[in-house]
Fold:
Amino acid sequence: MTAFIRVKLARTIHNHHRNHHYSSLLCCLSLLLTSPTLAFTTAPLHRHTSIMSSTSSASGDATFTNKSTSNNIPTYDGDSSAKATDFANYFCAYSQLYHQKQMLTDHNRMAAYHAAICGNGDLFKDKVVMDVGTGSGILAVWAAQAGARRVYAVEYTDMARHARRVVEANGVGHIVTVIQGAVEDIVLPTSDYEEGLLTSSNDDESNKTQVIDIIISEWMGYFLLRESMLDSLVRARDKFLKPNTGIMMPSHATMLLAPIIDEEERRLQHKEYANAMEDWKEFATTTSNVYGVDMSVLEHDFDREQKEYYVLSSRWAELNTRCLLAPPCVVKELDMHVCSVEDARGVGLAVGMEEGGGVPFEFHIEGRQSDDTDCDMNNGEGYNNGGDNNGQGGYDKIVSGFAGWFTVDFKSRTDEVGKDVAPPVPNPTYLSTGPEMGYTHWGQQVFHLPAAIPVLSGQTTTLQGTMEMMRTKESARLYNVRYRITASRKMTGSEDGQGVLMKGEPMELVYQIP
Structure:
């Protein structure tokens, strides 16, 4: 075999996910016998434990970037090489029951989708439904149980084989048709058109594929956008959903951001970074003394790698509400009935550009007043009121960084085209991945600051700036997040613009979401 194979090994973030990591690696190794030019990476494990990496190739060979030549996800317009790389880096893990089980045991996720589908039987009755990325097929089974006339369960990977078995085992094989392939490429069965099961509400002959009444999908990644499955969902909607009366589930999505205290983990990351650099220095000294080769010329590049991994990579976290220092702000909202592929490319970007000015945020974090004797971390409000300063005096709160998460709604259409003609959703449902929900497999993405910002008693610290989220240059499925932040302090209660004690220098920090 004359394959060019590039395998990059990286550390796992969560020790309890390591067996996910190794099974994913074995999954991709099995591809080597069938793909002549396949590149794949293993990276810190994340949602669904796929194995993408945002680290660029040392050679800079564009053959091994995980995107098409038009910077889209490969399933849309990638060539065979791009699609093979995308399968190895992204889809491969989804073909394993081990990873499906991880999602199926997220009961907040499961309860929300079950309520949205089975709790709205009147909406689903006699409808034609498409499940995009069906995985094990459970959402398709629920749709059939809720009364759907026909359900198309679309799955790119060999998990489709398992989905067919689940469908048959649950007695809905006469309703659910499992279709294996990319949703961008599939064609609905001709026989269903001929039998009158599929009818378009559009008189335009060019849009006769718009025959689906409801699209359901669990497409959300870390901090909502990671994995870029939204691209596929938007294209499926435009191709298959009835434009005026069709329903998307979820129907709306919101991204949120808040400042947090998470000092133990932030300090641990910095300690591990320092340890890695000390280990390098010892290695370089040993190599010089024992083998006569000076490796110190590589120290700068090694330092960059370690800093990107330990300090400038977001971390999965399961925070509680006591970690929140201020109410979250909304950084992006999506209406799934009208959002575009352009909307999926990031947050705060200029139209048609890979970067932009970002979305503004402003957080005001008050220190305790001198007569405030309530040291309860929660204080009944859900936001940190001090009391635990990690053993350091002089302040009662610490800004360790920011946390990002998302919510989705399953509710009636609100867009101008469909709000008056589409059928209402009788029983709306809501799913949050925020700290108030406890565990979800999405968790929150935490962006730790290089240095913590103390909040002093009797003073208000203001964090003002912008957040920008954009796809990496190497992968259309991975994102970087840029923060531009200015911190200032003033006496609590002073008039706006008065009593400013300090205004720090602007900071610009770019993180990768691994």
About this structure: DSSP finds 13 helices and 19 strands in the chain. The first helix runs from residue 18 to 29.
